[in-house]
Amino acid sequence: MRPDELRSRRWFRGDDLNAFRHRSRTMQMGYAPADFEDKPVIAIVSTWSDLLPCHSHFRSRVDDIKRGIWQAGGFPVETPALAVSETFMKPSAMLYRNLLAMEVEEILRSQPIDGAVLLGGCDKTTPGLLMGAASVDLPTIFVPGGPMLRSYWNGQTLGSGSDQFRLLEEKRAGNLSERAWGEIEAAIARSAGHCMTMGTASTMTAITEALGLTLPGASSIPAVDSGHARMASASGRRIVDMVWQDLRITTLLQPASFTNAIVTDMALGGSTNAILHLLALAGRVGVSIDLDTFDTISRRTPVLADLKPSGHYLMEDFHNAGGLRALLSQLTDLLALDCPNVSGSTLGDTLQEAVTVDEAVIRPRARALRDDGGTVVLRGNLAPDGCVLKTSAASPSLLRHRGRAVVFSDYADLEARIDDEQLDVDEGSVLVLQHAGPLGGPGMPEWGQLPIPKKLLRQGVRDMVRISDARMSGTSYGTCVLHVSPESFLGGPLALARNGDVIELDADDRRLHLDVHDDELARRRQEWLPPSQRYARGYLALYAAHVTQAHEGCDFSFLRGNQPTPEPEIHH
Ligand code: FES
Questions:
Q1: Which residues contact 392 (CB under 8 A, 6 or more apart)?
Q2: pTM of the complete model
């Protein structure tokens, strides 16, 4: 690309009043024409906020990225976007992923921007940034925020989420004091960075690397490692070259790249949330994948990363063991090695010199954690459009199970009754949560790891079959059937389950069955009353009107597809 072909030239060059204003107002910020004229304008889309602790290092990372952009002859502009905070946004950060995606799309489209650096990491920020950028299709590079350092308490390693859930159960069982709980609270988030288990954040940034959208090796660098700052400035240098090469994001987001991403997800024992996000991202670029794509790839992909919640180690260990390239170098027969990446090389090139330093963390194929099926897709009369189960984090003894349903009509009902000593439940029961899906939650809150009833915890029970149309945190574990589609709020069959119904789960057969006669189900359907819509205005009304179901990725229906939106008019 030549300077006169830059998209930003439409704003800055010429002798009309518009160009005058655009140049004048840029000089208002202290820049001379030599700083920006005939240079690629690079947007740094940062999802920083004081209410997003995982991104507390982003302001200095923006400076690192700017340094790289200046060095390479670009003009950096910081354009903040919605900081979708997994910790603080209620009822669910997932509710706002699409809002971030819409914001990113319009930030990039409406302004003089030639290329984009996306800075995210906390769960929903990565897919939201990618979805928005994919719909504009500029040269784009992703700077993953990096995991926090491993944490310690009382001689134990603490992993984000996973150990908090595990220790909470010990506290509820009466095995942990208030004082110990307070110490854990202070210890479990040790530094800047996203969750350092293989939760949604680490899964999505690894997937982004596998899609070719980060510099090779970027996704596992701890947030506070000096190498992270160097990776950020190198990304700044690289995006300027990507603009001159016109290397656009959709050149990288090819069907084969999605295969690589799903292999990565499965080999990592990654978060079930990744399924929703990849379905949504693929929908933005016209790539055809569905739940069966995930199950097919799952059947042939071993789980090699021994990371919590499926295994034992944390992201810092994974990085030191060789990181994603070491993992993928063992799976070359499953990968499309000729897929390009932002560095200008191919996936195969980046794996050439990969070395596994620690085979306890990144297992060799011969000692895989599981030979296949890190996450499986189930179907049956309870989930005609499918649901998912993360088998790598489930109890093997429960993967084939038949039990009596204990049904909770919504989360408030669950909270009110789960610890009731009179609740008719035993360790063979199947806990069912309704009204927790895309519309019912809304936003599919991460309620899918339903708590084990206290009276069973005291008996030593630590896992049960749990079924919902909710999601669960990527850091969660247990035999939790998630994303049941269609959801109960819309009258999906999950809405028809009653206490005492027998439910059969068979992960090997990919089956989830409500063992109730069709006539009885038809009768219950006759009785079922649709709940009233709750949101009459604002973003939530837009969400309720357009969100798709879990098996479609929960994007808004009007944002799918890759029909180009016209470039903005610049004259008055
Ligand atoms: Fe931000 Fe877990 S809370 S990644």
A1: 269, 303, 310, 369, 370, 373, 374, 375
A2: 0.96
